[in-house]
Target: TetR family transcriptional regulator
Amino acid sequence: MEKTLETKKPRARGRPLSFDRDQALENAMHVFWRFGYEAASISELTAAMGITPPSLYSAFGDKEHLFWEAIERYAVGPGSGAPKALAEEASAYAAIKRLLEEAAEELTRSCHPRGCMMVMAATNCSVASAHIEAALAKRRAGAVTGIRERIEQGIANGELPADTDASALANFYATVYQGMSMQSKDGATFESLMAITAAAMRAWPAKQPA
Model:
């Protein structure tokens, strides 16, 4: 049965916190983002958060609960661009183009680690952390579903040929995004990721709007 630690948060207990929990969580997010779940040690986390291990356990429960809180913070912060692009743009083409262009900017920002946290955080997981890897894979699959549904809407609206394979096209653009994430981790520039975006959008199976 799938673990549900990612949806459960420890109840606060004991005396009030003596530190800024929100800022501590932000700092922990950056550690997990940079090193991944397993490689982020308790000592690295507490050093970045400016707290002691007992304070971490008191405020967040344990390392895994802290990780899932950090993932949620990422999802509503740096990782929130894709859902907004898919929901706000008038056409499927514009939505996917915006998704990739904003990713090129976000993935190369100097104010946080490179790459997508959802892609980078569970690389090289051991058997002990296989459930972490599986849960993140499920989240990434959900993101692909969002892209596919937006493409299907575009097909229904006549923006793409009726015989367009929405699943294949969604997987293609999700793969482009994940590749951009890996390249940014290796030092790719904003300009090079924008060039990848332009090339990917030329594969759009319909006349591209002006």
Observations:
- Residues 130-156 form the longest helix (27 residues).
- Residues 1-12 have pLDDT under 50 and may be disordered.
